[in-house]
């Protein structure tokens, strides 16, 4: 409405009056869609979890330990696996099967928030960037957004 009024009633001055609006719009977009904002909001939306899970899919049939800091991480696995709900619903293992509020602990080779899984020497672990691994020196790592994938070193790697 403001732009319409400027063009309709203040035609000679419209360009001069529109410049501050255009500058404000450009500055707003730079801050709102810029790197700093994406980094600050990325933790809330689990930035990097899907690429990290996609990376682990290529690692044979090794067990995959997914951090417990993610809300319902099995949903991300199901999204990538693209399975029919009728096929996977019977393969989910819950912490309290008869409870109205339950969390998925295991689905296939994936383990969610299970600290025992991290002790398996051949397991691949996906941890958030704030978490650390006790035996990280025995693993290689790759970072995806706010997540780090730890996978066993290949024989002969330093």
Overall number of strands: 7
Structural class: alpha/beta
Question: What's the total helix number?
Answer: 6
C-alpha Rg (nearest Å): 24 Å
Shape: elongated
Mean pLDDT: 81
The major β-sheet equals: 7 strands, mixed
End-to-end Cα distance, whole Å, is: 65 Å
Oligomer: single chain
DSSP strand (E) fraction?
15-25%
Return residue spans where pLDDT drops below 50 for at least 5 consecutive residues.
none
Account of the protein in words:
The chain is an alpha/beta fold and 158 residues long. Helix content is 35%, strand content 19%. The protein is built from six helices and seven strands. It has helices at 2-9, 14-32, 35-42, 49-57, 74-81, 85-88; strands spanning 64-66, 92-94, 104-107, 110-112, 124-128, 139-144, 147-152. It has a seven-stranded mixed beta sheet. A hairpin with a 2-residue loop joins strand 3 and strand 4. The longest helix is centred in the first third of the chain and has 19 residues, at 14-32. The protein is elongated, with a radius of gyration of 24 Å. The mean pLDDT is 81.
């Amino acid at each position: 409405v403001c732009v319409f009024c400027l063009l309709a009633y203040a035609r000679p001055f419209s360009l001069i009056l529109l410049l501050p609006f255009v500058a404000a719009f450009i500055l707003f977009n730079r801050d709102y869609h810029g790197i700093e904002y994406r980094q600050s909001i990325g933790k809330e939306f689990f930035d990097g979890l899907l690429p990290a899970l996609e990376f682990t899919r290529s690692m044979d049939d090794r067990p995959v330990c997914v951090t417990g800091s993610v809300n319902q991480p099995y949903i991300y696995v199901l999204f990538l696996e693209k399975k029919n709900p009728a096929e996977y619903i019977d393969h989910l293992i819950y912490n309290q099967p008869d409870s109205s509020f339950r969390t998925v602990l295991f689905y296939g080779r994936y383990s969610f928030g299970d600290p025992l899984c991290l002790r398996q020497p051949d397991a691949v672990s996906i941890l958030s960037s704030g978490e650390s691994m006790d035996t990280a020196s025995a693993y290689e790592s790759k970072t995806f957004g706010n997540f780090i994938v730890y996978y066993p070193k290949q024989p002969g790697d330093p």
